[in-house]
Every structure is written in C-alpha cells, then in structure tokens.
Design a protein that fits this description.
Length: about 550
C-alpha cells in the first residue's frame, strides 16, 4: 500500500442536519445495564454507561420502550405513553438522562408505539367496561364474530406472532390485535387518536427527546369494513399495495400530522420502522413525512455479496431521490444477532435453526470475522447506521436459552414452532469476572446469560487493539473525521461477491463476501477488519478502508 492523498476535511455545511449521517446506538433497556441489582436494566444503569457510549463515539441513542407496561411484549405493550415504568425509573430520571446524554454530546430517540396499546392502558380498560358500539370501544377495533352464532373471528387476519388476530370477550364481541392478545390495535380513523399521539410527541419533545423511532409505522390504517385478506395478498406481508391492513395509502395522512408536530421544534427527527416493499419505502420519506426509514433489505440480504452489490446502491438511490439518506442496520431486538447469522451457512434460516438446528453448522469464529468486516461496510456507507447494543462487541446470540425461561410471546403464540427473540435480548456483558458479567449487582438477570459471555465482555475488549470494540471505536472516529462531510459514493466493480465503493473524501471501502482473494485498488491502508491485505490481496470475509491514490 503506497501513495498518499490528503483527506478532504469534513465540512457538514449549514444545510446538513445531524440525523443524515448519525451513528445511532440502540438500547434495549431491560438488558443494557442494571443500576439497582434487581436483574432488570434501568435508567440508573444507562446513565452510568454514558461515558462508555461517548467514548465509543455514537451520535445518538434509540431507546426501546421505557413506558409503564405489563411487559407482555417487552414494553411494546404500552400502558401509559407519558410516564416511565417504575422498574426502569421515574419520569424525572428519564428527563435527567436526556439532559446527561446531551451533555455527553449524544442525542436521544424514544420509541413511539402507535399501532396498539397494552390491554392495561386506560382506554382499553374503559373499552372493556363499556358496551358494544360505545365511543370507548370505537377507539379500538371491536367487531361481532362471523358464523351463525358469532363464534368465529370477524375476519381471517392473523397475528404476526401466530394465531388469529382476534380475541373474544365474554360479551361475545371480538377485538383486533395484529400482535399479542395483550396489544389491542387502535382505530386510527379517529381524530381523537391522532390528537392523542400528536400530544404524546409534544410531551416528549418538550422534555428534550430529539426524535422517535416509530413502531410498525405501516400498519396503522385498516381498510373500512375490515375485509378478509385475499390473494394476491397474504397475512403479515405488505404486498404491492391496497392490502387490508398493511402499507395503506391513508397511513401517510397520519405521518404528515406527526411531521408538523416535529417541525414546530428545532432539529427533531422521525425514523420509520416500516416493513414495506423497498420500492414503496420512498413514499414514507417525502419531505413532509419521515426523515428516515429503516432499510431492512440490507439486514435480510446479510452476507450475500452478490445481492448486496445491487441492493446497497439501490437503497442509496431510493433514499437520496426523495432528499433523505439511506440507513444501515444489521441487528436489532427482533433479529437473531448477525454474529450468529453470519456464522451459519447462508441457506440456513437462523431463526428456525435456534430451535433444534444442527449445532455443527455454527462457526462462531467465522461469525465474528464477518461481523467485523460488515461493521466496516456499514460504517463507510453514506447515511446513518443503527447499531444494536452488543454489536460493537461482536456479541453472538444466546442460542441455548432453555425454553422454560423464554418470555417472548412468539414462543407461545407460534405453538412452540419458533423460540422467539429472547436470544438477542440477553443482558450485555460488561465485566468478565463480575456477577451477571457486570450487567448489575445480581446473579439472576431477567434472562440468563450464556456461560461464555464473559469472553465478549467490555472490560476484556477495551484497550485490546485487536478487539471488535476497539475496531468500532477507531472506525467511528475515522468516520466522523472523513465520512460524514458529504454523501458522495461511487460504487466500484471488483468482482461478483465484493462490495466496493469510494467516498467523496477519497476513502475506499472494500468487503470480500466471496470465497477467493480479491485484488485491491492502490491506496494507503486506514483500517482493516482482519489481518489486512497481503500482497495487495484481500482475503474472503475481510474488509478494509483505504485512502485512494
Ligand atoms: O416489530 C414489528 C414487526 O414488524 C414484527 O413483525 C417483527 O418483524 C417481528 O417481531 C419479528 O418476529 C415491532 C417491534 O420491533 C417488536 O419488538 C414488537 O414486538 C412489535 O413491533 C409489536 O409492537
Ligand atoms: Ca434494575
């Protein structure tokens, strides 16, 4: 590697706002850090770890729901949108946490869950106490059953977690829940519902929240009359448009209302969790709608270079065409951690494999190596990166959780055909030799950690230049200095399973997802995920950042 060109300095310019190229770190509150030793992560723990997050170099945090909740779906069953669950802390602590994060130069996104409430929410309790046809019931989707005696569900919709999307009450009526029975869907036809959520946004914006990740952003509006799902549509699959409950055009009216609320404040942002067809995603990013949306195609394609070569440039094009920036995510609290997905042969469905799959297929070392390479890929691309807690440690999935400890409603609702998502939600290891690996002063965290999680602990990795944590720290620092000043990217063709591109500053990223070494373009080595190139060749499962001649 020879030659030297000066890096162009970062100049964000006045029109550039922070979220366009942020690194956002996702905190799954219950599993991040436990401040009081009761086995559940909390605000005290999060606050104590702010220096760690600042040193890592992230720009913002996305906090999974912290609201009062019976926790029947990990807090995505919200009982009160204007408070904090007592197990997590108090509202005053949340405000103090937001302020402390700001002092560390870190912004904070909260999680908005508008499709459904918990069955413990005041509105749903009032609906249960009220009569069929009442205004209280009209805030949700209550309906009479079908069949001669109404004993069949009103339609054929199914829950994302398995089973019918309807539950029957003693008085004979049914209510709709696209997720768990404990998560009744709200009726977004009502102005009252819209006004309520706009007010919730203001409530948190007034307390300093910098934006929201919006849960199941594509499911709010349902077709009038709640018709059956019929071919070509399928349940839980948004399809090409006009699906009875997914990705309906009416949903965009709701979004515009939220955007007006956000725009009344300075510099706030909204990011959509909308699992829609990639070609429909730009509609969510119009200038009066979301600022950004998650790009799940990148996550789903995963370690398949020949496909990423197409999907990555298209994601860039789609986002930039509507004035947004692309986003990159490899893991979150709903997915098998990618260090484990990448450790399995690409044809294996990792989620299914968790339940009784052949353990010999797993190559943990390969998973770590690829996770490191993929980190350099996503952190070099233009746009924002959403990291999931533990990903900076190459933390693998907890693959051996005994079924007795599973908490995800998917396990029961799927009739035990999937283990669900608990394996990616196991508490983070901070200290290799402490109780619960330093998660908290407890031997009994809410989910058990694998016996060997200490190998990945923060204290083991910190200061070790070969660790995945230090790789992330260096990559984030280099990114901040050289990769966020503009959104330019030119894709290079270096082979069938190779993703390669040059950024405006002159930084070139190459990742080899194939099986043969790749000839690198000339340039000075800035960062390598593995041992770095030999004789100008990049090995399979490795990535580098070069400074082009
Ligand atoms: O997930 C929405 C979603 O699309 C799910 O179908 C997801 O793909 C599924 O959980 C995978 O098994 C969001 C949240 O991220 C998730 O944690 C919640 O359970 C869900 O909404 C309901 O609020
Ligand atoms: Ca706690």
């Amino acid at each position: 590697m020879t030659g030297h060109t000066d890096l162009r300095p970062t100049d964000p310019g006045p029109a550039t706002t922070w979220w366009r190229h942020a690194v956002v770190y996702q905190i799954y509150v219950r599993s991040f850090a436990d401040g009081n030793g009761d086995g559940i992560g909390d605000l005290a723990g999060m606050t104590s770890r702010l220096p760690y997050l600042r040193d890592l170099g992230v720009d913002a945090l996305w906090i999974n729901p912290w609201y009062p909740s019976p926790l029947l779906d990990g807090g995505y069953d919200v009982a009160d949108y204007r408070d904090v669950d007592p197990r997590i802390g108090t509202l005053a602590q949340a405000e103090a946490f937001i302020a402390a994060a700001h002092e560390h130069g870190i912004r904070v996104l909260a999680d908005l869950v508008p499709n459904h409430t918990s069955w413990d929410h005041d509105w749903f309790r009032a609906a249960l106490a009220a009569a069929p046809g009442s205004p209280e019931r009209n805030r949700y989707h209550f309906a009479d059953g079908s069949g001669p005696d109404g004993s069949l569900p009103p339609n054929n919709w199914t829950s994302f977690f398995g089973g019918p999307a309807w539950t029957r009450l003693d008085d004979g009526q049914w209510y709709l829940h696209l997720f768990d029975t404990s998560q009744p869907d709200l009726n977004w036809e009502l102005d009252e519902v819209r006004a309520e959520f706009e007010d919730v946004l203001r409530f948190w914006f007034d307390r300093g929240i910098d934006g929201f990740r919006v849960d199941v952003a594509h499911a709010l509006r349902k077709a009038p009359g709640l018709p059956d799902v019929e071919p070509p549509f399928r349940n839980s699959d948004p399809g090409p448009g006009n699906h009875p409950y997914l990705d309906r055009d009416e949903v965009h009216e709701v979004i515009r209302g939220w955007r007006r609320v956000a725009d009344a404040y300075d510099d706030r942002m909204l990011v959509a969790e909308a699992s829609v067809h990639p070609e429909r995603l730009p509609d969510y990013l119009r200038s009066d709608e979301y600022h950004q949306a998650f790009n799940f195609e990148f996550l789903e394609v995963g370690w398949r270079g020949w496909r990423q070569r197409d999907t990555i440039p298209r994601a860039v094009e789609r986002a930039t065409a509507v004035g947004s920036t692309p986003t990159w995510t490899l893991s979150n609290h709903d997915q098998v951690r990618h260090a484990t997905r990448f450790a399995l042969p690409s044809e294996v469905d990792a989620k299914r494999w968790l339940l009784g799959g052949d353990r010999r297929w797993l190559d943990e070392g390969l998973g770590v190596r690829r996770a490191r390479a993929a980190a350099l890929l996503q952190l070099a691309l233009p746009g924002s990166v959403y990291l999931y807690q533990g990903e900076e440690l190459a933390l693998p999935e907890a693959t051996e959780l005994p079924v007795e400890v599973l908490q995800d409603p998917e396990w029961e609702r799927s009739d035990h055909t999937t283990k669900g998502r608990d394996g990616c939600r196991v508490p983070v290891p901070w200290v290799a030799t402490a109780p619960s690996f330093g998660f908290g002063d407890t031997d009994d965290p809410w989910l058990p950690q694998p016996a060997d999680y200490g190998r990945y602990a923060v204290d083991v990795q910190a200061g070790d230049p070969t660790s995945t944590l230090e790789l992330h720290r260096r990559a984030l620092a280099l990114r901040r200095a050289h990769l966020t000043g503009d959104e330019e990217v030119d894709f290079l063709d270096l082979g069938r399973a190779v993703v390669a591109f040059r950024r405006g500053s002159g930084v070139v990223c190459v990742i080899n997802m194939g099986t043969r070494p790749v000839v690198l373009p000339p340039g000075r080595l800035l960062l390598a995920s593995g041992d770095g190139p030999t004789d100008g060749l990049l090995s399979p499962d490795d990535a580098v950042w070069l400074l082009a001649d």
